[in-house]
Specification:
The chain has a single domain, classed as Aspartate Aminotransferase, domain 1. The protein is built from four helices and six strands, in the order H-H-E-E-E-E-H-E-E-H. Helix 2 crosses helix 4. The longest helix has 17 residues. The chain is globular and about 35 Å long. The model has no long low-confidence stretch (mean pLDDT 93).
Length: 112
Amino acid sequence: MIDIFADYLKELPASRQKRIIAIVHEFIKSQPDAEMSLKYKMPTFEIGPNWASVGNQKHYISIYFCNEKIIENIKEKYPKISTGKGCVRIKDNQEIPIEDLVESFNKALHFK
């Protein structure tokens, strides 16, 4: 899996690589038993039916969660960060709210 993730990173601009590596590192650290794969051409973490993904988009990084309820705290706490139905979009000029993303990540992988 590391090789596939390394190949994925090679395709990204250096600034995005650093940001995505930081997010993925924290996700792995918080849920070391999660299965990591590339689904929909982006790093995806799964425990049972639950999942979260980190994707590179043209103007931002997207973090997708298996349920929209999971990101309610991020929507409230960071109104300037764009969100969608179950996803958080972080532009290059925005600080990554890593602690809150990890909290949402943990909720996503253990969602019932």
